[in-house]
Amino acid sequence: MAEKFKQAMRKSQRRIEYAKAPAVKVDDKEAIVEAVHRKRVKKLLFGENIGDWLPKTELGKKVKAGEIKDLNEIFDKNLKIMEPEIVDFFIKEIKEKLMDTTKTSYVRMAGRKYGYRCAVLIGDGSSFLGFGIAKDKDKWTSAGKAARMARLNLIRAKRGCGSWECTCGTGHSVPFNVSGKTGASRITLMPAPLGTGLVATEVVKPVLEFVGISDIWSRTSGETSTKINIIQATIDALKSTFRKEKTSH
């Protein structure tokens, strides 16, 4: 009972401090992007300090106890991340970007109600990438929920130098051709030599940058105008970089 009382007091204190914080205008997309990039999302979801985190799952308890050293160990053991705080525990400076905001509507007996759907991309700039989608009546709250979902949907990508034109051996591209699809959207990522840049659409570029890829060739097909499907297809292709055997294309 004493522990539950302490948790309730901590939550109450956070609400009071958050209420005293200056208001953020979220009437347009730029304000939401600013709110997502700032630490207010993390403050709302996880509190003032990650040290206040009380893990609820077995994996979370092992992480906080120091039994698991990094995220690579979690993926090597094929464990599922059920708490977003685990990602923030290992990645101190995580990158976040609001990829899409859409106004939604639904009908109730009182009439038509409106809400928002936000899609947020996160990454560490090296190997780990996450993408989340969430809905809410408020734009900023929806963006915060999407950031939380992105942490739960974290994937690991492998970089390499798979182009026959380049022998630098650094991880500036993908190790071999990979393909991914979501719905009717398909994409193929091909290794490019150093200095080529990201030969991809503007939607795909942030996804590649968030895993540290700087040179690549890409080819899309199918329904390419659906932004979220193209992003998810790119993430599906990056997940394939950890397959054990290289297949021919």
CATH architectural arrangement of the largest domain:
2-Layer Sandwich
Spatial separation of the terminal alpha carbons: 60 Å
Strand tally is 8
Low-confidence stretches: 23-27, 244-249
Mean pLDDT: 82
Largest sheet descriptor: 4 strands, antiparallel
Helix content: 25-40%
Spatial strand arrangement across the major sheet: 1-2-3-4
Structural class of the secondary structure composition? Answer: alpha+beta
Shape: flat
Number of helices: 9
SSE sequence, one letter per element? HHHHHHEEEHEEEEHEH
- The third-level CATH topology of the largest domain is Double Stranded RNA Binding Domain
| CATH class label of the largest domain | Alpha Beta
Q: State which percent range the strand residues make up.
A: 15-25%
Radius of gyration: 20 Å
Number of domains: 2
SSE diagram, text form:
Elements: H1 2-20, H2 29-37, H3 40-46, H4 58-65, H5 71-76, H6 85-90, E1 95-108, E2 111-123, E3 128-136, H7 139-152, E4 155-156, E5 178-182, E6 185-191, E7 198-199, H8 204-209, E8 216-222, H9 227-239
Parallel strand pairs: 7-8
Antiparallel strand pairs: 1-2, 2-3, 3-4, 5-6, 6-8
Helix pairs in contact: 3-7
How would you characterize the overall build of this protein?
This protein is of the alpha+beta class and 249 residues long. The protein has 2 domains: 2-156, 2-Layer Sandwich (Double Stranded RNA Binding Domain); 157-249, Ribosomal Protein S5, domain 2, CATH 3.30.230.10. The protein has helices at residues 2-20, 29-37, 40-46, 58-65, 71-76, 85-90, 139-152, 204-209, 227-239; strands at residues 95-108, 111-123, 128-136, 155-156, 178-182, 185-191, 198-199, 216-222. A 4-stranded antiparallel beta sheet has the order 1-2-3-4, sandwiched between helices. A 4-stranded mixed beta sheet has the order 5-6-8-7. The termini are far apart. The model is unreliable at 23-27 and 244-249 (pLDDT under 50).
